[in-house]
């Protein structure tokens, strides 16, 4: 069975790093990820440069990325202005993030949950008319740094409203890395009931070392698309000491050893993680595979 891994290091990874890479280096990161087998890449976000300076060169990055028929580039958009920029820049897909809790939504996006739902519905309609694939992410679905626990009912009710935008995919995000497998199963069930037939994607941060377990639980619950970031780069400004998304190479190891295919090449992923660590001035990244190595021996499977 194939599990698709969406490589998010060029966007969600880099935007939370203090070091700002040049456009050329961002494009090289994307090229390396594609060379390692990534076929969906969250490459950029079209947001205000004063809020997220790491993403200020989104148009320049999209103008230089390697174009291939089998590679799809995703741009994050939060409003119609961002969508217009994304369409002009030539992205293949757009993703909109709607936070599950009111306080986090106001702190992170400067808008209420209702306002973001309406923004998503507008984005989805216009993006679909432009021929773009659309996805919507429910952020802080597993827990909020300001309001605490988030119930499956809240996530299910929000998903039901988001489904009116007819997304091609709905993603559940453990934005601050608090989730555990039982939550994964409960949330997947709630979202499946709220939006039957819509493919699900999962986005896990490894803040408390539960991301791999959560990813495997999601796959067992029927999720076939997972987000990951090479080296585990990134983090969350609202989660102190948070690591980034689950490391692509570590997730690949867990999936391959569990009998799933990904189409990714672990050795190239490790090489990319080492490279980006140097570029970011980091002596050590959260990912483990580059230090521990594959098992058994030097086996480096492809597929």
UniProtKB/TrEMBL annotation:
UniProt keywords (A-Z) are: Lyase, Metal-binding
Single GO molecular-function term? lyase activity
Q: Where is the Pyruvate carboxyltransferase domain?
A: 3-270
Give the top-rank taxon of the lineage listed in the UniProt record for this protein. Bacteria
Q: Could you tell me which SUPFAM superfamilies the record lists for this protein?
A: Aldolase
Q: Does the keyword Transcription apply?
A: no
Pfam families, per this entry? Answer: HMGL-like (PF00682)
Member of which family?
Answer: Belongs to the HMG-CoA lyase family.
Protein name (database record): Hydroxymethylglutaryl-CoA lyase
């Amino acid at each position: 069975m194939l599990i698709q891994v969406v490589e998010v290091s060029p966007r969600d990874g880099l935007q939370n790093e203090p070091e700002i890479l040049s456009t050329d280096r961002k494009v090289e990161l994307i090229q390396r990820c594609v060379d390692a087998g990534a076929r969906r890449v969250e490459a950029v976000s079209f947001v205000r440069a004063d809020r997220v300076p790491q993403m200020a060169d989104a148009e320049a990055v999209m103008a230089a990325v390697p174009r291939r028929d089998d590679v799809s580039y995703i741009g994050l958009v939060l409003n119609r202005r961002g969508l217009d920029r994304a369409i002009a820049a030539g992205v293949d897909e757009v993703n909109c993030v709607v936070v599950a809790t009111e306080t986090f939504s106001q702190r992170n996006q400067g808008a209420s949950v209702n306002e973001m739902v309406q923004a998503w519905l507008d984005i989805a309609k216009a993006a679909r008319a432009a021929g773009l694939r659309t996805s919507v992410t429910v952020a802080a679905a597993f827990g909020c740094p300001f309001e605490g626990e988030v119930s499956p009912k809240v996530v299910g009710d929000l998903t039901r409203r988001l489904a009116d935008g007819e997304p091609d995919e709905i993603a559940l995000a453990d934005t601050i890395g608090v989730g555990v497998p039982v939550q994964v199963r409960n949330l997947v069930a709630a979202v499946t009931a709220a939006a039957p037939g819509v493919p699900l994607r999962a986005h896990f941060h490894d803040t408390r070392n539960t991301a791999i377990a959560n990813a495997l639980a999601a796959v067992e619950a029927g999720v076939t698309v997972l987000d990951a970031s090479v080296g585990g780069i990134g983090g969350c400004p609202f989660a102190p000491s948070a690591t980034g998304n689950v490391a692509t190479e570590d997730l690949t190891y867990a999936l391959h050893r569990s009998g799933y295919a990904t189409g990714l090449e672990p050795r190239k992923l490790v090489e990319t993680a080492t490279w980006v660590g140097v570029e970011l001035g980091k002596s050590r990244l959260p990912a483990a595979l580059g230090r521990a190595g594959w098992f058994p021996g030097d086996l480096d499977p492809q597929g």
